[in-house]
């Protein structure tokens, strides 16, 4: 294992964990952030993946994570902003704090990490450096039940353009906008069937398609400031 690590935020489960494991299979050094300790993290640690605790729901938590990341490594090959909370909207007195928390996780954390960790990307000796934002198909459509989630992911999508312009030509900044990649625990067959019917491809593909998309961005030297839809052709249905 050699070279500068790739950071994946929220890499303890599902899409982030799959990408972390696949990158390790390809012999990349990997750092993940995680919020909740769990036995599965030990398996990642045994594979040499560095695991740093982080809670992005407060600005202090974000800044504390950046300080510990800098203590861990002097350089980064890439940053993948994957940490996310798919929290539904709430009404009543908690609505504002819910929105603010999602703003901090989906927008403020990537914004501050991109600003303050540019020096780590600059210190990487490899010819290509990347930042990848995981957004969502709903950025284009809105959402009746997850309006705060969709709005803050839309903010992240817009940050892709600004950071791509700011960091060119040294660092490429792109987004991946998935729709229905994996079911959640408790989703039944009726939900799965409804979800499949929303895409032209009529499938729930699993995390491999996100790794393929990440790999494409990590390997391509001429793509910046774009959002790559990975949604099975939702616009066709
Ligand atoms: N899964 C899908 O079908 C789709 C996914 N996406 C996007 O792709 C990305 C990966 O999706 P998926 O794997 O399902 O994501 P998850 O919902 O599993 O979330 C990823 C990680 O984010 C971490 N996280 C949540 N809240 C915080 C917080 N306050 N501070 C720090 N970390 C936090 C969690 O850490 P912990 O587990 O340690 O608490 C979790 O492991 C996300 O950005 C998601 O929005 C978009 C569309 C569809
Ligand atoms: N952070 C997350 N974001 C999203 C999730 C999730 O589990 N965590 N799930 C979805 C849904 O699968 C959606 O694509 C279909 O209902 C969206 N975002």
From TrEMBL:
Q: Which reaction does it catalyse?
A: (6S)-5,6,7,8-tetrahydrofolate + NADP(+) = 7,8-dihydrofolate + NADPH + H(+); 7,8-dihydromonapterin + NADPH + H(+) = 5,6,7,8-tetrahydromonapterin + NADP(+)
Q: Which UniProt keywords apply?
A: NADP, One-carbon metabolism, Oxidoreductase
Which GO molecular function annotations are given, in alphabetical order? oxidoreductase activity
EC number(s) stated in the UniProt entry for this protein: 1.5.1.3, 1.5.1.50
> Which InterPro entries does the record associate with it?
NAD(P)-bd_dom_sf, Sc_DH/Rdtase_CS, SDR_fam
- Asked if the Swiss-Prot or TrEMBL record annotates the protein with the keyword Oxidoreductase, the reply is yes
- Which superkingdom is the protein from? Bacteria
Q: Does the keyword NADP apply?
A: yes
Task performed by this protein:
Catalyzes the reduction of dihydromonapterin to tetrahydromonapterin. Also has lower activity with dihydrofolate.
Q: Which family does it belong to?
A: Belongs to the short-chain dehydrogenases/reductases (SDR) family. FolM subfamily.
In Swiss-Prot or TrEMBL terms, this protein is called Dihydromonapterin reductase
Annotated organism of origin: Billgrantia campisalis
